[in-house]
């Protein structure tokens, strides 16, 4: 592997970026943050320089070991394969499948439907309702799944990639004023995860580009 500090192109509020920040914190990987403001100047992700780095014009993007990786789950899996401690994918293949299933459900079946790029297409008047419906539909399924897979966390009693996806998505739900009362399993797991240091230091309220009024 090439020497040099990894560089994470991130936006403080991006739930996909938050997943990667949690993984980097859990694995104690020192890195540099380059903020990409998804709103300022029409969206800095649309600049020619960033588009050359990531043709999809999305965060997160991670430069590490001489390569550039896009997509949060691909980044986390690369970190898992190259820096396997602590383990974020269980050794047991059945549990590993559950972790990937939950991660994909959130990263592919919930978050993209309430993402900024989609909400812009929906129109301002419908954005809140659209996001709430997308999250509620996904959480209805997720709550049922977690009732059969969860221990202390999403899959058993160890933090996994599924948990890295869960916490940012619950934060999205709270931001869009989704009633979490029907989701006691999701809520209790989220509460237990938020007290862990890796989830705290990676939180959107503690990033280099967090606006002053949102800092904690």
Automatic annotation (TrEMBL):
EC number(s) recorded for this UniProt protein: 2.5.1.18, 5.2.1.2
Domain named GST C-terminal is located at 92-212
Do you know which PROSITE patterns this protein is assigned to? GST_CTER, GST_NTER
- Write down the chemical reaction(s) this protein catalyses: RX + glutathione = an S-substituted glutathione + a halide anion + H(+); 4-maleylacetoacetate = 4-fumarylacetoacetate
Single Gene Ontology BP annotation: L-tyrosine catabolic process
Record-annotated GST N-terminal domain positions: 4-87
**Keywords associated with the record:** Cytoplasm, Isomerase, Phenylalanine catabolism, Transferase, Tyrosine catabolism
What coarse category fits the chief subcellular location reported for this protein?
cytoplasm
Q: GO molecular-function annotation terms?
A: glutathione transferase activity; maleylacetoacetate isomerase activity
Obligatory cofactor(s): glutathione
Gene Ontology CC entries for this record:
cytoplasm
Record-linked PANTHER family: MALEYLACETOACETATE ISOMERASE
Q: Which family does it belong to?
A: Belongs to the GST superfamily. Zeta family.
Q: What is this protein called?
A: Maleylacetoacetate isomerase
Organism field: Homo sapiens (Human)
């Amino acid at each position: 592997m090439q020497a040099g500090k990894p560089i994470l192109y991130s936006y403080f509020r991006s739930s996909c970026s938050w997943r990667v920040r949690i993984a980097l914190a859990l694995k104690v990987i020192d890195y540099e943050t380059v903020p990409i403001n998804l709103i300022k100047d029409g969206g800095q992700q649309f600049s020619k320089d960033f588009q050359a780095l990531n043709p999809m014009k999305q965060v997160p993007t991670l430069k590490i070991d001489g390569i550039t990786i896009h997509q949060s789950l691909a980044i986390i899996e690369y970190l898992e394969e190259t820096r396997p401690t602590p383990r974020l994918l269980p050794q047991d293949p059945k549990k590993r499948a559950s972790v990937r299933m939950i991660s994909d459900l959130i990263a592919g079946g919930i978050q993209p439907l309430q993402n900024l790029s989609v909400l812009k297409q929906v129109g301002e008047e419908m954005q809140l309702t659209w996001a709430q419906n997308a999250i509620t539909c996904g959480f209805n399924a997720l709550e049922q799944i977690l009732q059969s897979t969860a221990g202390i966390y999403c899959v058993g009693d160890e933090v996994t990639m599924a948990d890295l996806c869960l916490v940012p998505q619950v934060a999205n739900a709270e931001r869009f004023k989704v009633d979490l009362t029907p989701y006691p399993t999701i809520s209790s797991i989220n509460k237990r995860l938020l007290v862990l240091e890796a989830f705290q230091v990676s939180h959107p309220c503690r990033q280099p580009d967090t606006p002053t009024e949102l800092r904690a």
